[in-house]
């Protein structure tokens, strides 16, 4: 039995722990925060490829219980034109479709399931360093404690400490010139079907809303910012100042965006968008990175959580089927790198449609309308959600 030290107790780390436990190993999760992440974070849509990867781990229904079905997407323009409505990523054979879920609720569902399976999680463990030999790894934490294991897995996100331990020359995240914000509006009676993601390329800002099964309106917006904002600038752009800016950005759009923003009690503080075009080194010896630590993608891909899930399941399979740890980690990278870099590139392309000036907007809207007037037989994004992982198939080295 392999003892795996998993750095990071978010979605990626928790699912990795469950996958390794299912594969017969002993995972231990180390979370930097002194408490769990209940109540923290916005919402996300989990694509069917991520849900399918959860099935053999017994987690698909756990995740579905935390969210609501999002089977379709509507695309429109700021002038009020609705161009098309179509399935969002297809469906699994049992009828399962994409799920929209609060990140916090997803985390809680996974945390509780990990606890039910007896997986140990330690809080207040911020990694500061790690050393390895030919036979084991030692992790050092800021509280002066240490942990020994057979391998170390960095599921510690965009600012991963494990990534820089593995490769001190690792690149920094690339700023994508968009901010993210959003919230939940109450007391509205919109004519939209519940679960349909209504995405609008507005005259000044990209805006999306979805009516949940309880009647609240979940929404997000992507204000463009050419230069990366500092932490101080983000602090000042919050609360009513952020609400006023968003209302200004949607004022010229003939959509319910302004009504939704006004009906939102608390708007999420804005945060920047980042991605990684490529991270040259994913593993060294007995240490490896997964999820956002290895390949953060723009939210425009709609695949961040699903990529982390696919990573976790693939890594679990490799460590189950390949007896040598270093070879297992190399096999994991060979199975994942090409796919995730293609997803990151697709997210970048999708996001670029949101960062356009007035002249570019006219051209963009023209081509969007033409694209939906004569849709292609092949969806360029289909490769993302059509991907499937067979847990029972033995990994070929």
Automatic annotation (TrEMBL):
Domain FAD-binding: 2-345
PANTHER family in UniProt: MONOOXYGENASE (PTHR13789), PUTATIVE (AFU_ORTHOLOGUE AFUA_6G14510)-RELATED (PTHR13789:SF309)
UniProt keyword annotation of Secreted present: no
Molecular function terms from GO: FAD binding; monooxygenase activity
Name of this chain's protein: FAD-dependent oxidoreductase
Source domain of life: Bacteria
InterPro entries found in the cross-reference section: FAD-bd (IPR002938), FAD-dep_Monooxygenase_BioMet (IPR050493), FAD/NAD-bd_sf (IPR036188)
Keywords recorded for this protein, A-Z: Monooxygenase, Oxidoreductase
Species name: Amycolatopsis mediterranei (strain S699)
Organism lineage: Bacteria, Bacillati, Actinomycetota, Actinomycetes, Pseudonocardiales
